[in-house]
């Protein structure tokens, strides 16, 4: 088993592997009671807020993982090898944790640190504590074409600011 090593954000964020984009996705994982769920996220980033190192993520309102994050107040970001887990990404995007245990079906393993679940197969993990969340109001989106392109269904984003509690790398 490979071991994680704690690091500081500024050691890895500059030119590092921890950025979010279509090509550089991450798994957001949280728990509710004894159940754990995860989802693929490509929207977000890292920065500072209230003199704290933070992550900024966006989860669709109907998402089961969003419900878990809201209940737990904590979550992890797990960065997997994108080439190796390309099929896993497609599967996790296609199914809902409401219908099945998609972590188990994807043959992923859940680990815990400070009672926050994360995906063991990750190369890097960020443990987070929610500081702020708010549903994004479509009326606040200025370019109309964004609403037309990204919000065709009733699935608005919820915006989260979360403090980074710990960063683990292998």
Structural overview:
The protein is of the alpha+beta class and 170 residues long. The protein has a single domain, classed as Electron Transport, Fmn-binding Protein, Chain A (Pnp Oxidase, Chain A). The chain has five helices and ten strands; from the N terminus they run βαββββαβααβββαβ. The strands form two sheets. Strands 1, 2, 3, 4, 5, 6, 9 and 10 form an eight-stranded antiparallel β-sheet that branches. β4 and β5 form a beta hairpin.
Quick overview of this protein structure:
The protein has one domain (5-169): Pnp Oxidase, Chain A (Roll), CATH 2.30.110.
The helix tally amounts to 5
Q: Work out the count of structural domains.
A: 1
Task: Kindly report the average pLDDT value.
Answer: 87
Q: Sketch the major β-sheet.
A: 8 strands, antiparallel
CATH architecture: Roll
Looking at this protein, list some descriptive labels.
170 residues; two-stranded antiparallel ribbon; 10 strands; eight-stranded antiparallel sheet; Pnp Oxidase, Chain A; alpha+beta
């Amino acid at each position: 088993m490979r071991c994680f090593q704690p690091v500081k954000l500024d050691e890895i964020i500059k030119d590092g592997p921890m950025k979010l984009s279509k090509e550089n996705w991450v798994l957001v994982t949280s728990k509710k009671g004894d159940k754990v769920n995860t989802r693929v996220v490509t929207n977000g980033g890292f920065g500072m807020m209230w003199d704290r190192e933070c992550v900024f993520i966006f989860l669709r309102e109907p998402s089961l993982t969003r419900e878990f994050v809201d209940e737990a107040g904590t979550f992890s970001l797990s960065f997997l090898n994108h080439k190796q887990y390309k099929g896993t990404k497609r599967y996790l995007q296609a199914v809902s944790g409401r219908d099945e245990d998609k972590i188990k079906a994807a043959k992923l393993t859940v680990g815990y640190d400070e009672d926050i679940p994360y995906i063991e197969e990750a190369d890097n993990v960020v443990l987070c504590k929610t500081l702020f969340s708010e549903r994004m109001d479509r009326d606040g989106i200025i370019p109309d074409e964004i609403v037309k392109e990204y919000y065709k269904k009733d699935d608005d984003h919820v915006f989260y600011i979360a403090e980074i509690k710990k960063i683990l790398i292998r």
